[in-house]
Amino acid sequence: MHDDIPLTIGRARRVLDERIVPAVHATSVPLEVAWHVLPGEPVPPTEGLALDYEPYEVGTPWGAAWGTTWFRLRGTVPAGWAGRRVEAVVDLGFDVDMTGFQCEGLVYRADGTPVKSIAPRNQWVLVSEEAGAGDEVEWFVECASNPVLLDHHPFLPTDEGDVRTSSPRPLYTSRRMDLALFESELHELALDVEVLLELQAELPQGPRRMRVLQALDDALDALDLQHLAQTAPAARAALAPALASPAEASAHRISAVGHAHIDSAWLWPVRETIRKVARTASSVTELIDQTDDFVYGMSSAQQYAWIKEHRPEVWARVVAAVEAGRFLPLGGMWVESDTVMPSGESIVRQFSQGQRFFEREFGIRPAGVWLPDSFGYSPALPQLMNRAGFRWFFTQKISWNQVNKFPHHTFEWEGIDGSRTFSHFPSMDTYNSQLSGAEVAKASVQFRENRLASGSIAPVGWGDGGGGTTREMTGKAARLADLEGSARVAWEHPDAFFERARGELVDPPVWVGELYLELHRATLTSQHQTKQGNRRTEHLLVEAELWATTAAVRVGADYPYDELDSLWQTVLLHQFHDILPGTSIAWVHREAVAEYARVEAAARAIVERSQAAVVGEGDLEVEVNSSPVARDGVPAFSARVVEPREVRPVDLVARDGGFVLTNDLVRVVVDAQGLVVSAVDLTTGRDAVAPGQVAGLLQLHQDFPNMWDAWDVDRYYRNKVTDLRDLDDIEAHVDGTGTARIVVRRSFSASSVVQTLTLAPGRRTLEWAQQTEWHETEKFLKVAFPLDVRAEHTMAETQFGAVRRPTHVNTSWEAAKFETSMHRFVLVDEPGFGVALVNDSVYGFDTTRDSADGAVSTTVRLSLLRAPRFPDPATDQGTQTHRFGLVIGTDLAGATAEGLWMNVDPTTTTGARGALPLVTASDGVLVSSVKLADDRSGDLVVRLWEPVGRRVRATVRVDAPAAAVRAVSLLEEALPDVGAQAGLGPDGSVEIALGGFEVRTLRFVLGCR
User: Fold this and answer.
1) How far is CA 730 from CA 101, 524, 666, 668, 914, in A?
2) What is the CA radius of gyration of the chain?
3) Residue 299 contacts residue 393 (beta carbons within 8 Å)
4) For 325-349, what is the mean pLDDT?
5) What is the pLDDT of residue 1?
């Protein structure tokens, strides 16, 4: 036979696109339309329904950026349509290629009942399955005219990312607002043809493909293009045998779950996400009502909370669908957060706040962590997930790696403490599946565990306001349930998938360490003030809990449960994976900085009033240490009345235009350019600075990645660097505390910087306080520390421990990690000597091995500021502040302590007395959190961790009457594998054994209960 394959495919595609699909709603009558344009922010639906409406003509431009327009639609079902399915079709001016990134609407009945959303790929609304002649229709549509910011040239700078700078011109022109007959046979025929067209494209040459193509030709022969509705049944009958042929027994099994990845903020503000979530939830609950087997999964307790607060009418439908087992709460977190930058306590609160919400509202605890789209995953997560009671982990993002293909899809993930979590990546490499033939085939072909496991997960639906799963997708799933040449598709709860996969993979492959994303590395630096706000507030909230707990236990003060919950939830929201990473529009980051300031003020108020209650009224000066490490003679978590003490001032000597600073521990030489040329540990005599090099050197790079401006830094940025050695001024003095201070002022390009270098008595850390007036474009600012240490690895702090990374680039995996993450410190060491860099708001750094005169040294550079232009063209512009320090001669324990001191400053207050610590822990463990139990029982919860990676036995003591103590989960509940209670000594102490980097939570019952 002749090869007619291209003819068949071209014929089928044109008939499908140009005739069948348009004919589904071809018979229509216009609706009567009226509108009301809101002058400012959105209003509640009850107010929207009561607005005054004026006549509107379809085709009239509407919708300024970030505006809200309410449309009223009225119509009458024609007499000839009686008994037929009637729908409305509303095209607001959509571009179907921009689904989720443009205008959207939510349809309401006149009584305020939500119907469903209107989106580019979901433009229909059901009027009636069997309409009556003369039936009256009245609907109201709340429409958001969100600007398209990620267009076909996706990274152009734009001022449309903030309502304060956006254009007032109308963005959209409506095309259609009609009542229409729904031709169900044509709709089904469209799905039949599309599924078979996509299937044959993935099949090898052979009988199955040829018969599918012949079926398509036969169907098109049976279809009269001038009488489509009448001949559609005959065309479908011709396709039926091809669709009825069952799948092979060994066919890959796809567990589909309805999904709509809705970023809690990104190219829209939080207030718009609230509406996106409500729109999507209304559509998928409508789809649940119209199907028998479809299930939809949604993560993020915050998004459910928004629906409950702002759209109670949608919330009622969600609750009913959850109770029916069709709407699935997933993930157990407050939001789908970044997991690299939040602190350990923040990750714990993501879990505890999320699970408490799901338990309270639905009586459900999600069994797994659902994080499709975060930018890499901390190696601390497996332990924390396990200790929060989660049984599985799901993501997809690692498939975006630039260089190395991840070797597994279903595997065990091992963290820094040895904990393992059963994990899965979808082999179709998407969290927005349309169940296309290409996606389904890819899931089957590239699944790495095909030898032993039977299937993978497919999250199915349009995200980010695109409306989630559509009826076209459920129609495809029905056809792909058992189809020859295809993987089998079935709607299924992820829990069922993981249970089956665990049974199939008795001895799964293991991945050890971080899940590093070889992309989006610059998210560790972009939008510095957002990152600084996160670091400050997560520390302050732990401090507020400490002193509120101490005040409650010691003097009976009220514990601010509700206020702390609310403040934590604000911080957790802003840890979302497009807010904290700095990849959202200007509006989002403007609001984030303001919210951080509000949380900081509220947390400080809790600290101040709690400390006042603890130390009492008086005129004595009291110094307070809120850190878990003793400082300057003040024990951890305590307050001490200030007593006069002698301090030996740092010796400051001018030399060659620079200065030499010396205390009892270190000697630092700063040259005339304000750069550190020597930093000697007086105990060992070792100099931390590499010979002939300078430390604290600011370096400026060109920074224009190939794409994803705020997200990415590409390796070639290193090819061009400017050392900022020139200075405007340098001066030095010793202040009243005996601390030496050197002030350095520099100007460069369009920017300037003031650095204050300080060395305090009795400290081995040289600190920099830096204020930068940053006015650069597409530049990357780093500060370099060439260290005379031949380090095989860096040790960078992560949640409750540290992650070890090679300093060499022997393999492509190591070479890809040219920008990596840290929390409060990074340490480089060799036997007998180590140097650390500590900081108060830095997350990104890079490391290189350098060689001169046969000696290998290690250069570590902190990443300070960037200046990308998309999506926020003013990223980081203006005044920026940093604190960082060089710890001269230290180890992992010392680096941990210095990092804590950098982030938890000592404070002073006035009172009548000092205060002993409520909780103490012996050397070898650190206390992360002291709080009252979330269940408001009055029990005391203490969380500890082992910080250096070794096994220890430790004693923890509570300075309060305690009746019992038990080890509990991160959710503060009894652990099934731990005895009912540990041995509690008469002095309120308990002995515990911890493994390396292990986290342990203890719950003390206070009083004689």
Assistant:
1) 51, 31, 22, 16, 41
2) 31
3) no
4) 98
5) 58
C-alpha triplet 696, 698, 700: angle, nearest 5°? 160
Task: Give whole-number Cα distances, 613 to 89, 550, 603, 858, 909, in Å.
Answer: 64, 9, 16, 49, 11
CA distance 269 to 251: 43
Q: Which single residue is written with the structure tokens 């600075």?
A: 689
118-172 pLDDT tens trace: 999 999 999 999 999 999 999 999 999 999 998 777 899 999 999 999 999 999 9
Which residues does 121 contact at the CB level (< 8 Å), separation at least 6? 96, 99, 462, 466, 467, 470, 472
Length of the chain: 1009
- Which positions ≥6 away from 240 have C-beta within 8 Å? none
Strands 620-625 and 907-911: antiparallel
Burial class (CB in 10 A: 0-12, 13-18, 19+), 416: buried
Q: What is the pTM of this model?
A: 0.97
Cα 348 to Cα 763: distance, rounded to the nearest angstrom: 32
pLDDT tens profile 750-759: 999 999 999 9
Contact 543, 603 (CB under 8 A): yes
Joined tokens for residue 557: 């003060």
- Report which secondary-structure segment, H or E, holds 443: helix 437-445
Residue 395: what are its φ and ψ, rounded to 5°? -150, 175
Distance CA 257, CA 587 (A): 33
For range 95-106, the mean pLDDT = 94
**For residue 649, what is the DSSP state?**
P
Cα maximum dimension of the chain: 103
Position 1009 confidence tier, pLDDT thresholds 50, 70, 90: very low
Query: What whole-number distance in Å separates Cα of residue 920 and Cα of residue 926?
Result: 9
3 state SS of 291: coil
Helix (H, G, I), strand (E, B) or coil at 908: strand
* Token duo for residue 880: 């920026």
- The pair of structure tokens assigned to 297 is 């999964």
> 570 exposed, middle or buried (CB, 10 Å; 0-12, 13-18, 19+)?
middle
